[in-house]
Write a structure and sequence with these properties.
Shape: globular
Oligomer: single chain
Number of strands: 2
Number of helices: 16
Mean pLDDT: 89
Strand order of the largest sheet: 1-2
Strand content: under 5%
Structural class: mainly alpha
Number of domains: 1
Radius of gyration: 22 Å
Helix content: 55-70%
Low-confidence stretches: none
Length: 409
């Protein structure tokens, strides 16, 4: 990189730093950015493809061959941090809205709209792309693989929207019980897990696991609300860190929960879909660590060179979440037409050579995501030129893609 380019980057970082309000909580933004980056990096490192004789792509995972990589998923599974920070930010936003005289309904509408527009955008675009790609010769199996990958990261948006709608009740619970308001959620997941995996597990209906969806992901959000309400301090953070780590170890080594925090093809049990008690134990430990490190993170992010990327990531949060799988597919699908297999892309993720090649592909995926984001970032902003017919068309396309992808899943 030339000296002029470095100088320009420094000036841009300094300008971003100068425009940041003094009251901005940089540590919270930094934690959110870290959790956001963990999503694409985790999917890009722990997800892969195999190419069949017809040139079609199928999902695969290096965890099938390298089970000892499971601890990597403990680091990259940072949704607990994301929900923690979400709860913290929501309670502050809700309090500010109430001080302005804004109704709960209007506050919620604004937050849900910011989540919904990018999701509607990516699903509508993919609904339009599928027939076009099929006509260009992309195998139907590849399109099915791609659709499931695109829809998978979006499941959390619906859960997050529901939990956000419950913010007023979370605040009331925090006011009454403090950080202990999250305990019933932990207990609920523990009961469901006992029914699923205990002595009567074989007699339990398959839908029972769905009961963990709301309390499982709401656990860290409620901790964040308590944190924002100043009901959770350093003493509680140490309890979360130590208790969460101890529970995690017990579930892993005594009760033999699957070690991977993400689903592994062929495995009968999964921790994240829906969340098991192991996910909550990890979220508790991560939340405790985040609260304890908050001041140090805030001091680090006083440096413009570190703060500027955090701002950019936060401003593009939903773009990163919605389009990172498309970025990987944009490299893998063309490679599937080359014949043979391309290491790190269409070769099976079952060798050290694949791991080395996949790491080398990460900057390429990142570059493609930046290019895609240049044109899709607008989905995060209010749709000023979206007429009612266009909104209806986008909704129909999105609904069609969702039905297609969820039906495959």
């Amino acid at each position: 990189m030339s000296l002029n380019a470095l100088t320009s980057l420094r000036k841009a970082a300094s300008a971003i730093d100068a425009k940041t309000p003094a009251h901005r909580d940089r540590a919270i933004d930094g934690l959110r950015a870290l959790a956001l980056l963990a999503v694409p990096i985790g999917h890009w490192l722990l997800g892969g493809f195999t190419r069949d004789a017809d040139g079609a792509l199928h999902n695969a995972s290096p965890l099938e061959s390298f089970g000892f990589f499971a601890p990597l998923s403990w680091v990259l599974q940072m949704l607990g941090i994301f929900f923690l920070v979400g709860g913290y930010a929501s309670v502050l936003s809700y309090r500010r809205a109430a001080a302005r005289g804004e109704s709960t309904r209007r506050w919620l509408h604004g937050r849900v709209a910011r989540l919904g527009r990018p999701v509607l955008g990516v699903t509508a675009v993919w609904a339009a792309l599928i027939p076009l790609l099929y006509a260009m010769g992309v195998p139907g199996t590849t399109l099915r693989t791609g659709s499931t990958l695109v829809i998978q990261p979006l499941w959390f948006v619906g859960i997050y929207a529901v939990i956000t709608a419950l913010t007023p009740w979370c605040i009331k619970a925090a006011e009454r019980l403090g950080a202990w308001a999250a305990a019933p959620l932990l207990g609920s997941v523990a009961v469901v897990d006992f029914l699923r995996y205990g002595p009567l597990g074989d007699a339990m209906p398959s839908w029972l696991s769905l009961l963990n969806l709301l309390p499982g992901w709401m656990f860290a959000y409620q901790l964040g609300v308590s944190w924002g309400e100043r009901k959770l301090g350093r003493r509680g953070a140490w309890l979360l860190l130590v208790g969460g780590t101890a529970l995690f170890a017990a579930l892993l080594f005594v009760f033999h929960y699957p070690a991977s925090m993400v689903g592994v093809p062929g495995e009968a049990r999964t921790n994240s879909h829906p969340p098991s008690l192991l996910v909550l134990a990890l979220a508790a430990a991560q939340s405790g660590a985040a609260i304890l490190l908050r001041d140090r993170i805030g001091k680090l992010l006083r440096r413009p060179a570190l703060w500027a990327p955090v701002v950019v990531i936060n401003l593009s949060a939903m773009t990163i979440l919605c389009w990172h799988q498309t970025a990987m597919l944009a490299a893998a699908v063309p490679a599937s037409f080359l014949g043979g297999t391309v290491p790190g892309l269409t070769a099976g993720p079952d060798s050290w050579a694949w791991i080395a090649a996949r790491i080398a592909w990460l900057p390429v995926f990142g570059g493609i995501l930046l290019l895609i984001g240049r044109y899709t970032r607008g989905f995060e902003s209010p749709w000023k030129r979206a007429t009612p017919p266009r909104r209806v068309l986008a909704g129909l396309l999105a609904a069609g893609f969702a039905v297609f992808a969820l039906g495959l899943a």
